[in-house]
Structure formats: C-alpha cells, structure tokens
Amino acid sequence: MTTTTTEPNPTEFEGGIVLETNGLTKKFGALTAVDDVSLEIESGTINSIIGPNGAGKTTLFNLFTGKHEPTSGSIKFRGVDIGGRKPHEIVADGIVRSYQITNFFSELTTLENVRLATQARQTGFRPTDFVRHHGSVQEPIDEARRVLERVHLGDVAQRRAANLSYGQRRHLEIAISLAADPDLLLMDEPTAGMSPEETRETVELITEIAEDVTLVLIEHDMEIVMDISDRIAVMNMGSLLARGTPEEIQQDDRVQEAYLGGGDRD
Question: Which residues contact 136 (CB under 8 A, 6 or more apart)?
Fold first, then answer.
C-alpha cells in the first residue's frame, strides 16, 4: 500500500496502482452511502463497478471527482491524497468524469465544444482569452480535431451538437472528457439508452481509449461488463462486496446471491 505523501515520479506508477482508496466512507446524516471501501485501480486497465441502485456507485464516483468530501478514509491518486480537493483541481491532476447525461453546448458545433475543453485545459480561460476570436486560437482547434477523429466524430465536426444522433452525442461527451487529457477516465453508464449498433460502436471506442487511458466504468449491462473488464468491483449497500476478474466475479456465491442471481436491475 502506498504511503507516500509527497508528489511522486509518475513513472513509478506505470503498470502499477494509479488510484487507491483505504477505508473510504461517506455519510449523509444517518445514511452511510459508501462504507469502508478499500480498492486499487491498476494503471492501464478497464475496471467496472456494478451493483443495484443504492449500492453507492455514484457516490463513489462523486468522491473520486471531488463533488463530495470523504467522511473518513483516504483516496490516493498516483500516491497523493486527493480527498477534499476541489473538482477542478482533481481534473487538473488527471481524473476526468464522463457523465451519463450529456453535458455540452447544444448550439455550438461539435468542434467548438471540444475546442472549448482543450482551450480550458491549456489556458484556464484567462480573461484575455475572451476578447480574442476563437479562430485565432489554432492549437486548441487542431487538438480538438485530433480528439474528434479519435472518437470517430471527425466527419461531423461542423455539425451543431443539437443535430447529432444520440450515440454521437454520447461520443461527444467522451471527446470533451478526453480533451482534458486524463490519466484516469470515469465513465457513468456509457452505453445507457443506446441502440445495439450504437452500443457496439461505443464498446469498440472504449476498448480503443483503454489503450492509453485507465478506465473505471459504472455499467449495468452485464454482457459488456464481463466482456471488456479486466477487473470488476461489486458494491452492495455502500460496501465493497467483491473484487476480481470477470471469471472470479461470476463464480462468487456472494455476488450471485446479492446481485447477479437476482437478474439485471437498474
């Protein structure tokens, strides 16, 4: 277990642990939403978090991204405790979240949405940037085009985001997340509401992204989870019930009783 409190050399974590929680707990009054969760996320892997509604999955993501502050326990990213840090600081550290509900400017083009995200990372939107025409900021535009090609949206770069298909909108949300250049990308139900074809395309995109970004997914589609995950964490009533490979999770009697055996639940 890493105990380093000073900023480590990032190369120390190549192939190692990128995110670690120890006794992580979040209480809202008398309700314990996340209860003594200890887990490790290895660099370069696809990780899924599963469990029924109310299991604590979303609260766990909110703790990772700074929306909630831990009641107790720790969250370490690349060896540094990030519990209680502000969301924009955590994004700057390298943890980015892609939401289930699309979050972009519908009246802007696909390219402009991603350009804003790349420019925000590069400049922080200093006041002087607002008095310059966006066309003069060429570097963020070029990077935005590269990100759009990566998520297979290059051919709709000039289309208004409002006119994209549902699957394309979800991919735009992923593109905006990638524009922040994350080391760790949290994806909240990336295939929810998609057609079979859109789901297939999104799963392919996820596996492509995982070639150089560590991923943690909240996903209810068990076929997808079992197919693409390197490791799966199963939560139930705020606690970590089990953690292992897809094969280990499928064979775990506790998981069968608490979740898988009861059929798919949202």
Answer: none
Of the pLDDT bands very low, low, confident and very high (cuts 50, 70, 90), residue 142 is: very high
Ordered by where they begin, the domains of the chain are 1-94+182-266 (3.40.50.300), 105-181 (no CATH)
Kindly give, in sequence order, each residue whose CB lies less than 8 Å from that of residue 143, ignoring residues fewer than 6 positions away.
118, 179
pLDDT in tens, 148-167: 999 999 999 999 999 999 99
- The first and second tokens of residue 51, run together, are 């469990």
pLDDT digits (tens, 9 = 90+) for 171-186: 999 999 999 999 999 9
Helices 110-123 and 166-178 cross at an angle (nearest 10°) of 20
- Could you report the per-residue pLDDT of 120-139, keeping only the tens digit for each? 877 654 455 544 555 556 88
